[in-house]
User: What shape does this take?
Amino acid sequence: MSSWQTIAKTSDVPPGQGRTFSVDGKLIALFNVDGEFRAINDLCPHMGASLSEGYVEKGAVMCPWHAWRFCLKDGSWLDAPKSKVRTETFDVRVEGDTVLIDVDSGDMFEPTSDPSEK
Ligand code: FES
Assistant: This one.
């Protein structure tokens, strides 16, 4: 099942940056990666920092609090690829100047996990 909802205008998120939007009571971080939009759960699975405020580079975001890096495409934790820790991702599509996400495509959210699981 899918549930596409408007999240922002394309101009709301400058290239190379992220912004937080609330959709269905959930905080979503929307990123503009060289004109492609990616959406993830805004809350870092470590301790809940806003990932939209992180540094974006090479298709990943670095959490502003403790520098964990997450892939914006699949949500994987790039610093420990074998870990089960990841962040939730959402399908995104652009129609004209409007960005939509499928709120039902978010597959999971693992809360804080033990970093020693690396
Ligand atoms: S809160 Fe994100 S790495 Fe710690």
Residues 4-106 form a domain with the Rieske Iron-sulfur Protein fold (CATH 2.102.10.10).
